Amino acid sequence: MAKPSDLIQGTLDLLILKTLSLGPMHGWGIVQRLEQVSNEALQIQQGSLYPALHRLEQQGWIKSEWRETENRRRAKYYLLTPAGHRQFAKELAQWQRLSGAIGLVLEMA
Amino acid sequence: MSGNLDEELSFHIEELTRQQVERGVAPDRARADALRKFGGVAQLQEECRDKRRTRWIEDFVCDLRYAVRHFAKSPGFTAVALLSLALGIGANTAVLSLVETIVLRELPVREPGALVRIVGKQGERAQGSFSYPSYQWLRANAPIFSHVFTWRFTRVWAGQGDSMEWISVDKVSEEYFTGLGAFAMLGRTLADEHEEPAVAVLSHDWWRTRFQADPEVLGKEMRLGGIVFTIVGVMPKGFFGAEVGRSSEVYIPLEAERLLAPYSDLMRMRNASWLPLMGRLRSGVALQQAAAKFQPVWHSMLQETGPLDRAGKFVGWPRELHAELQPAASGISRLRREFDKPLKVLIAVVAVVLLICCVNLSNFLLARALTRQRELGLRLAVGASHGRVVRQMLTESFLLAVAGAALGLLFAQWSSRLLVALLSSSTNTVGLDIRLNTSVLLYTAGLAVLTTLLFGVAPAVRALRSSLQPVLKEGSHQVAASHAWSRSLLVVQVALSLVLTFGAALFLRTFRNLISVNPGFDASHVLVAEVQPIRVGIKGDAATQFYHDLSTRLALVPGVRRRAPPTQRRFKAAVGGIQLSSKDTLRRRAKRWRHSSTASRRITSAP
Questions:
Q1: A109 belongs to a structural domain
Q2: B8 interfacial to chain A (CB closer than 8 Å)
Q3: Residue bearing the bigger pLDDT, A101 or B3
Q4: Which of B4, B9, B39 sits opposite A45 (nearest CB)?
Q5: Which contacts of B161-169 are long-range, i.e. CB under 8 A and separated by 24 or more positions?
Q6: B343 near B98, Cβ under 8 Å?
Q7: A70 lies in which domain range?
Q8: A78: CATH
Q9: In this structure, are residues B59 and B391 in contact, taking their beta carbons and an 8 Å threshold?
């Protein structure tokens, strides 16, 4: 039940939006993709993934559809909405500003 | 929605399991691992559900069910709480209904806002009754009114022989019904009945009780005051004329007076002030303008038809009166004047009673909150937020208040009827139609909410201050209630109760004095009879002879010790004689009896 101490909530949203911007995906797929791409560094707690997905859906940035997977099983796929695209761009810019600023501070002698 | 969620999550778990199996783990262990890795599914579902907006309704229903179970567990406390709430809220509702009926409610007629009462005023002095000639003159000569009307409330004997009844009758003028804007339910109302004045219109209730709601009642005859009247109409339910608190059984034309009392000069007398004046303003005329335009008309009326002195000269005092047009949308009522102060006192008293109830209940709930500390501590430990717990307690209070308000409404119905009965005395029965209408219901609902907040908040907040650990360890041990809250509440409650108790004691003493006022003589075994010989044409010397004969014959009746000659009553015109009425009205007329003749005093001083 614990929230992840490694990732702040905002960052998780950003990662989800990024993943979905590349194409529709179901929850399991998002977890797998993030693990793979980050070389197992990012382990998303399932307990925080689904609430985040539902919150994003409530806010209208992603929407969901039931589709069939390759194995002919039913799963809920999430897609990015146009509003979600705009939100992603905004959050990406924020993240870059933030991380740039932190980087500058850390580099100072 | 939650079905979908389950399916979604189980898909995820299966994929996770499959992944583990591919890595070589045994299927059962793989599944167990997957579930563990996944984290608490129930918790997850709860969190997802939390994000949904319909959450608060579900919470509320849940709280309600819990509250019902909680109160069912302690029926004694619940019963006491409900009773005191019912009393507090019910009493307030009853008094408000009374006020609404007597003071606020508009007459059930067309456009009541255009109705005015014409009153003559000079400083503090007000003249509300006028003569028939004044009424006639005004009706013919006051163009600002589309209708001018009047009426006289009276009582007559209806029926004949053994089945006679003493009923209330309104003698109404030509434009009474059109002026008020009221229509008959059956037949017609009264208009200009100069040709044939022996017609009558029945009230709805009288038609239902005396004529069994007979639809063929039109054309039937009834006797009033010994004269045969033909029924020409029935009024709809709810119509009671223009006077709040008085409703008559039958309406007859004012012109019928010449049939009922053929020897009376009342309708021609300029000095008899016995009729109120009401008018309906023409549409579009504002009250201020109307009053201004009316003054000269009024003075002309006084000039032409005002009271004359013995020499036939015009009596000066009315000239100083100026006309006042009083808005009469809610009719006119002596009740308002008579009961103005008592009603205000009553409003204050029931408000204080409600306050005491709330304080009492608050104290109760505080005490219970202390015994529930363990239960609340557990809830907080399991993860309920503070807000959630407060919501729970407020919901409990709300449930109590709503149930109390529902009971209070029932109590209000009963007690408002009691109040109306108390307003009546033996000579003036008050008929009020107290109804629950939307404004009263809204008021009650508002009261319920207010009381919830009043007595629910304190315990709820107090309950939260409880610290978790010592409570859980000590089990259901009761913590001493040495809290400032409950002590101050207790003080307030005792103070208010004392005020009310003293007030009630004083009131009872005054009331007792009133009903047992010493009239200054021994009123036991004294009967007073009212006789009006003028109505059968006996007046002047014949009347004196009549009284003499009556007196002689009374002396022959066994059981009569002494009898007194007639005393004058209030009216100078026509009515004089021996009064016969019950003993309690006798007490109220004690003042007038002090001016009675010596003969009367002789009777009453004897044992």
A1: no
A2: yes
A3: A101
A4: B39
A5: B167/B206, B167/B248, B167/B249, B167/B250, B168/B246, B168/B247, B168/B248, B168/B249, B168/B250, B169/B224, B169/B248, B169/B249, B169/B250, B169/B251, B169/B252
A6: yes
A7: 10-104
A8: 1.10.10.10
A9: yes
DSSP state of B557: S
B38 CB neighbours in chain A (<8 A) are 46-47
What is the overall mean pLDDT for chain B? Answer: 76
Nearest to B240 by CA among B332, B139, B174: B332
Write down the domain spans for chain B. Answer: 2-52, 112-329, 338-515, 533-605
Tens of pLDDT, residue by residue over B555-605, are 777 666 666 655 544 322 222 233 333 343 444 444 343 333 334 444 444
Report CB contact under 8 Å: B39, A74. Answer: no
This model of the complex carries an ipTM of: 0.77
CA angle (B308 as vertex; B307, B310 as ends), nearest 5: 140
Number of domains in chain A: 1
Chain B contact for A33, CB < 8 A?
no
Burial class (CB in 10 A: 0-12, 13-18, 19+), B278: buried
Cross-strand partners of A18: none
Q: What is the pLDDT of residues B328-360, one digit of tens each?
A: 887 888 777 777 777 788 888 888 888 888 877
Nearest Cα of chain B lies from the Cα of A103 at a distance, in angstroms, of: 34
Distance of CA B425 to the CA centre of its chain: 17
CA distance B232 to B64: 59
B339, two tokens: 């009961």
Contact B12 A51 (CB under 8 A): no
Q: Inter-axis angle of helices A46-58 and A27-37, to 10 degrees?
A: 120
Number of H helices, E strands in chain A: 4, 3
CA-nearest residue to B43 within chain A is A1
Interface A-B, measured as beta-carbon pairs within 8 A, has a size of 52
Q: Give the pLDDT of residue B425.
A: 60
Cβ contact (<8 Å) for A76 and B39? no
Our CA-based measurement puts residue B21 at a distance from the nearest CA of chain A, in whole angstroms, of: 16
Question: Cα(A80)–Cα(A64) distance, rounded to whole angstroms?
Answer: 9
Q: How confident is the model at residue B551 (pLDDT cuts 50, 70, 90)?
A: confident
Do the Cβ atoms of A55 and B4 come within 8 Å? no
What's the gap between Cα A38 and its chain centre? 13
Q: How far is CA B597 from CA B300, B565, B603, B604, in A?
A: 42, 8, 10, 11
* Nearest chain B alpha carbon to A45: B38
pLDDT in tens, B239-272: 888 888 788 899 999 988 888 887 778 888 888 8
What is the rounded CA–CA span in Å between residue B332 and residue B312?
Answer: 33
Q: Check B48 against A45: CB less than 8 A apart.
A: no
- Cβ of A46 and B44 within 8 Å? yes
**Is residue A91 situated within a structural domain?**
yes
